[in-house]
Amino acid sequence: MTAAYLDKLNDRQREAVEHGVGLADGAIGGPLLIIAGAGSGKTNTLAHRVAHLIVNGADPRRILLMTFSRRAASEMTRRVQRICRLVLGDNAAIMTDALAWAGTFHGIGARLLRMYAEQIGLGVDFTIHDREDSADLMNIVRHQLGFSKRKTAFPQRAPASRSIRGW
After folding, report:
1. CATH topology of domain 4-120
2. Per DSSP, what are the bridge partners of residue 103?
3. In 3-state terms, what secondary structure has residue 72?
């Protein structure tokens, strides 16, 4: 099968996308660490890598695709779907819908915690606090312990960023 969908990638990106795919025994090679700066095409390369794995027979249910923001995770999944549709046609939807482990680090982490909550001693209805919730909870505890009546705050707020003269 020709991989024309990889033609727009540069040599390094293509090397990362094709890493360990198409081994003689049909297996897919091990992990690959990619270190690249902003604007270097990491998202595009990762989307092509996942699509290339799927096109070459990898089970999409066994692919973990994580990023930092929901927007980036959604964009990456859309790109994988677009590339797979280009190569596989109508069969692509079946494959890319099975890409169940795509999301943010926090989302995947929360999903795993919920799946294994009882085994690790959590109730299945546990709550994850965001930064504001955590600050509110700290204020309640500080007040209950009498620390809110002190002149200095406990714990102290992080200092504002400082500029260094001469730089």
Report:
1. Rossmann fold (3.40.50)
2. 66
3. helix
